[in-house]
Each structure stands twice: as C-alpha cells, then as structure tokens.
Amino acid sequence: MPVDASALVDTLARLVAVPTAYPPGDTSGLTPLLVPELEALGYRVGVHAERPGLDNVVASIGDGGPHLVFNAHADTVGVGDPAGWRSDPFALTADGDRLYGLGASNCKGSMAVHLWLAAEIARRGGPRRGTVTFTFVTDEESLGPHGMAYLRRAGLVKPDLLCLGAPTANTLITAERGVMWVGIETTGRAAHAGAPDTGDNAVERMLRLLARLEATLFADIRRRVDGPLRSTVNLGQLHGGTNTNVVPSRCRAEIDRRLLPAETVDGAYAEIVAALKAAGEPEGSWSAELMRGTNGFASSRTGALVTALAGAVEAVTGKPAAFTDAVGASDGRWFAGDGIEIVNFGPGGGSEGHAANEFISRAELVESAAIHAAFVGRLVGLG
C-alpha cells in the first residue's frame, strides 16, 4: 500500500516539537494536536487524566468485537546535556535516511504511524468487523500508574488484542519480563565516628543484608532462564549516612528485579523478604517495601494477533517476520493477567532511544506504516 512519506514525516515533526519529557511527563501540549485531528476523522475521542497534565487520549472507531487496541506512549526521557545534541532536540532534523529529534524513536515514531493508520482506517470506512482504538498515553517512562495502567484500572480501555508501539525495528516482541522495584531500609543509632562502638551503623547493616541476598538468592535468580529470557536483579541505588564523621543511623537501597513470564511479583517479593529475615539482623532494624511491580507476559505466536501481524510483515517486506526479545518493560505488562494477546511492534531501534541525537530511519517509518495497514486489513478488514 502506498504511504505518503512526507505527510508521515510531517506528523512526526509536529509530535517532536511538543516537549513531553519525564519528569513530569506532561502530555497536555499534545492534546490540542491529537483531539481535533481524530475527531475530524470520525473517531469517538476522550481525554482522561488522573493527574493534571498527564493526559491520555483514547480514540475509537467501529463497534463490537474483536476490540483491537493500539498503544503508543507520548512521554519521553529528558534532553540530558544539550551540548550532546548536534541539532535542536525539538526540531525534527533530516540527515540522509535518519530523522533526529527527542522521542523520534521512543516512541513518537510509533505515534506518527498510529496517527497515519487512524486516518487510513477512517478513509477506508472503518473496520469491517469489531472496534479499533488508539491510545496515546503518558507515564510510561516512569513505569508509573497514571497512563495505560490508569486507563485499564478505570475500565476506559478493554482490549481483546493489544498492539503496543515500540522501537523494535519492525520486529515482533511477544514475550516480556515482569518488573519489580523493592526498597530496603536499615536503621541504627548515630554516634561520633571517633567512638563508633557507641553507635549502631545502618550502612554496615545494609551491607550485611545485601551480602546475604547475594549469597543466598541473587546468584540463584541469575541462573533462571526461559528460552532467551533471563531473570535478573540489579542494585540501582544505595544511600546512607549524613556525614563522614558520624555513624550513620539510616540507609536505603533500591533493587530492580526482572521476572520471567512464569514468575510473579508476589512470589519474587516474598523470596526477597524471606532471605532478609534469614539474615539474622535484629527485629525492627530493617524494613522492605514493594515499590511497584507488574508480571510479565507471553503471547502465543500462533494466535490471531501475531499471525496477522507476521503475515503483514511478510506481505510488505517479502521476508518472514522476525521476533525479538524485550530488554525493557512496556505498558503491555498492565494487561499481563487479562488473558489477551499482546505484541510490541514498531519502527525505531532500542539503542537509538534514551540517548542524545536520538533518531529514526525514514525508510523504516514508512515501511512500518504499510505493515500496520496490511495488519489491520488482515485482522478486522478494511474497505
């Protein structure tokens, strides 16, 4: 199917021009761009914000089932050091096949494709069967609860089939690890560093606990695999003490744990707490907190969603669809327990996002749009 490349790139340029960086992930600047455009196409459009500025746009066309939902997150990471950019991060800049700009790959490239797709579906009279919904959300970069998680929790989006825009270089991700963040705090008693034995060092207590976790649990976690997916653990933060000459009375560590699809947040958290309890530190001298967590998912490669998308890839490119393993976590994890088909797919590469001089390939962007149109045609029919 022919794709108007210039119109697609122009849409991406308009998206990149609106700052939506997290923090705070304010996407309200995009609402005046998205809503009138989608309403003019005949979509039923709602703007939903659990917190001011954290706008989530939901646009639907068609009726009944199956309900095919597309998702792309509008929030980006920050610019970082502006000196690291060769061009204005908020002005899409072309250099050969590459289009540079903050969010171009992650994930405004997928947003541009979805907006093009929304227009193409409307132009062809809507889906022949079922409902197609587009969601443009925030709070993804923070793994937060005010974007796609909120839409699900409030019953505003109920997909049967969920296709998440992601920088996968037009390959398919059908399995994703869960993610869990755990905070551990230790307490002690402050004292002068010249007489440390009169105090109780909270940092040393934390080091003992972390050593216990490493010896009894973390080594085992790193040996767990499910095909190409690996269970991982990472000590991301460690803070303690107030001054070098004071015995620290408090210390905090934060741990990132990635779970195999068969593992659960509750089970993973429980085994960390059990290992901490077995360390033998005095009762009340430490505490653990489940900061956030969602389970992973694994969709069948023979289901209707993946079959239609893989077939569309082959029809457009002339090559069999390729499958990729996820490194990060997507908003698909909020639906992991819903028994639906989930896939991540879109233009852009994971290594291009979250870095200065972020870019996306123009050819890959156009190819992705053509694949998406063929995919929707196969799955729900188009005129």
What do these coordinates show?
This protein has helices spanning 5-16, 31-40, 108-123, 148-153, 202-221, 265-277, 304-317, 362-380; strands at 44-48, 56-63, 67-73, 93-95, 98-100, 130-137, 161-164, 175-176, 178-187, 191-192, 225-226, 229-230, 232-240, 246-247, 250-259, 286-294, 297-298, 341-344, 359-361. The chain has 383 residues and is α+β, with helices and mostly antiparallel strands. Strand 1 (44-48) and strand 2 form a beta hairpin. Helix 1 crosses helix 3 (108-123), helix 3 (108-123) crosses helix 8 (362-380) and helix 5 crosses helix 6. The chain starts with a helix and ends with a helix. The mean pLDDT is 96.
Structure summary:
The chain is α+β, with helices and mostly antiparallel strands. It has 8 helices and 19 strands.
Secondary structure elements and their pairing?
Elements: H1 5-16, H2 31-40, E1 44-48, E2 56-63, E3 67-73, E4 93-95, E5 98-100, H3 108-123, E6 130-137, H4 148-153, E7 161-164, E8 175-176, E9 178-187, E10 191-192, H5 202-221, E11 225-226, E12 229-230, E13 232-240, E14 246-247, E15 250-259, H6 265-277, E16 286-294, E17 297-298, H7 304-317, E18 341-344, E19 359-361, H8 362-380
Helix pairs in contact: 1-3, 3-8, 5-6, 7-8
